[in-house]
Design brief:
This protein is of the alpha+beta class. The chain has one domain: 4-Layer Sandwich (Glutamine Phosphoribosylpyrophosphate, subunit 1, domain 1), CATH 3.60.20.30. Helices cover about 30% and strands about 20% of the residues. The protein is built from ten helices and 13 strands. α3 runs antiparallel to α4, α4 packs antiparallel against α5 and α8 packs across α10. The longest helix is centred in the last third of the chain and has 16 residues. The protein starts with 13 loop residues before the first helix and ends in a 6-residue tail after the last strand. The structure holds N-hydroxy-L-asparagine. The site of N-hydroxy-L-asparagine has 15 residues, from β8.
Length: about 325
């Protein structure tokens, strides 16, 4: 029988929907009753998954989930860990600057209701993920950009800070010697954090925060803050988030694509693979020179990850264990 034929919708009986000891009996939340699950043999929750090696961020998120916190609080707080870490040169304070030497940040967040908030091209504010959440919860808008986003952040009590650390400044000055704009796969543009979590109630949320591509043109905005591209959440299905060359993710609306593929019955793994193949196909030969990686999580707590080139990895905190995994990848030598 084809996998698709296993799909169960809201109307099926409880016994048909959950065969998991993790959930126990038939006490399904409203959102779970309308879920299209691809595989319900086992339901894992809470769970958090994030791009790259971000053990401290997933640990923070897990702590919140374990204490009955919401997935939304977990992903926000998890992302803040990387934003504050000056050693991470792709996120928050310490991020590599644009070609003019300015650190500009993009971030977005989505909750279980499908609400979305984002900020783009923000300078001098470290915790842009929290500003994005405030845009979502305290304004009639979904995206604020540049000076307007900063003004909003300051009005909400966020602190103005210099985000360019000595080591990022040094790297920028070195880059300026040649000013060659050639993003190097997995090196310069590494470590944007995209995080997805399911809480004890079974609700999913996601967040994504980045300083974007290093030495980008001033004003450039990538995928990370854009709904459907860098992040997408549907509480009936699951979520997905992206890392790598934002222009390519934007052109394929990769995270939305993955959630829609899961809706059609694909596992998170198969959905990530198909999205990467879509990016590759659309790019002709160019894919050889850029990296794109996706992670996904469905409502049953199944995870998936796939990327174009080797060396993308991701962090999962589930069943009390915080582990890093190497992602499978597309660009393998063909015999
Ligand atoms: C961007 N997708 O701005 C981001 C960069 C990234 O790890 O993911 N870096 O295009």
């Amino acid at each position: 029988m084809k996998r698709r034929n296993f799909l169960k919708k809201a109307s099926v009986s409880c016994a048909g929907v959950v065969a998991s000891s993790a959930i126990g009996s038939c006490n399904l939340s409203t959102s779970e009753k309308s879920i299209v699950f691809s595989n319900l043999k086992q339901v894992t929750r809470p769970i958090v998954i994030a791009t790259w090696r971000v053990a401290k961020a997933t640990e923070k998120a897990w702590e919140i989930l374990q204490n009955n916190g919401t997935a939304l609080d977990a992903v926000e707080q998890g992302c803040r860990v990387e934003e504050a870490d000056v050693k991470n040169q792709s996120v928050g304070k310490g991020g590599l600057p644009d070609r003019d030497g300015n650190v500009t940040l993009d971030a977005c967040i989505m909750d279980k209701f499908g609400n979305y908030g984002a900020v783009t091209a923000v300078q001098n504010i470290t915790h842009v993920i929290s500003v994005a959440r405030k845009v979502m919860e305290e304004t009639p808008h979904v995206i604020l950009t540049g000076e307007g986003a900063k003004k909003f952040a300051l009005s909400k009590g966020f602190k103005e800070e210099d985000l360019l650390t000595e080591s990022s400044k040094k790297a920028w000055l070195k880059w300026k010697e040649t000013s060659l704009y050639k993003p190097i796969i997995n090196i310069e543009n590494h470590d944007t954090i995209g995080m997805l979590a399911i809480d004890k109630k079974g609700d999913i949320s996601g967040a994504c925060t980045t300083s974007g591509l290093s030495y980008k043109m001033a004003g450039r905005v990538g995928d990370s803050a854009i709904i459907g591209s860098g992040l997408f959440i549907d509480n009936e299905i699951g979520g997905a988030t992206a890392t790598g060359m934002g222009e390519e993710v934007l052109k394929t609306v990769g995270s939305f694509l993955i959630v829609e593929l899961m809706r059609q019955g694909k596992s998170p793994q198969k959905a990530c693979e198909e999205a990467v193949k879509r990016v590759v196909k659309k790019s002709g030969e160019r894919y050889k020179n850029f990296q794109v990686g996706f992670i996904a999580l469905n409502k049953a707590g199944e995870t998936g990850a796939y990327c174009i080139h080797e060396w993308f990895n991701y962090q999962v905190y589930a069943k009390g264990e915080n582990k890093n995994y190497k992602s499978n990848y597309y660009n393998k030598p063909k015999n």
